[in-house]
Specification:
The chain has 174 residues and is of the alpha+beta class. The protein folds into two domains: 3-130, 2-Layer Sandwich (Alpha-Beta Plaits); 132-174. It is built from six helices and five strands, in the order H-E-H-E-H-E-H-E-E-H-H.
Length: 174
């Protein structure tokens, strides 16, 4: 790979990282070619882009990304590193957890999710349980609608009670 090719690869990686709100670094070493193919298929189903990257190129790409301090990831760039990019914060973690039912790899090295850094494989469960923006918006809308529904329900049932009471009082007075 020529110096120009490396610079171009670094620029492409830096752009991918800069554009991504969610990316994971995973250790996929010791996986067979068949296992990597299965992992790629599972990633594709979950709309996760998987790319094996060179650590030195990724570190230089991290250094080029403006507005984000990714220096915490530098020490993680050892061994084989795969970059997993997704729109959903929890999808790569779910892919890793599901894939690890059959083995102990891939290992989570670190993750960047909506400006938050997660370091280490022990963060995998927490990441898998994160809710996506759409899920959070749905929860908030549900919470906001619940009191309004309760008030409307009470008014409707109360209205029938009041109408019945007025009718009974009318009949009594007649």
């Amino acid at each position: 790979m020529t110096r120009e090719d490396k610079n171009q690869a670094i620029d492409i990686l830096a752009q991918k990282v800069a554009d991504a709100n969610v990316f994971y670094l995973a250790d996929t070493s010791d996986l067979t070619a068949d296992q990597v193919s299965n992992l790629r298929r599972r990633c594709h189903k979950g709309e996760v882009k998987l790319e094996v990257v060179k650590n030195t190129l990724l570190k230089k790409a991290f250094e080029k990304v403006e507005g984000r301090d990714l220096s915490s990831f530098y020490d993680l760039l050892k061994g084989q590193t795969s970059l997993m990019i997704s729109e959903k914060g929890n999808e790569p973690a779910k892919v890793i957890k599901e894939f690890r039912k059959k083995g102990d790899k891939p290992l989570l090295k670190g993750a960047f999710v909506e400006e938050a850094l997660f370091i280490g494989d022990d963060q995998l469960n927490a990441l898998a349980e994160l809710k996506s923006k759409d899920e959070l918006v749905g929860d908030i809308i549900g919470l906001l609608q619940s009191p309004a529904k309760n008030v409307l329900s009470a008014l409707q049932s109360g209205g029938q009670t009041i109408a019945g009471l007025v009718k009974t009082l009318e009949e009594r007075n007649s």
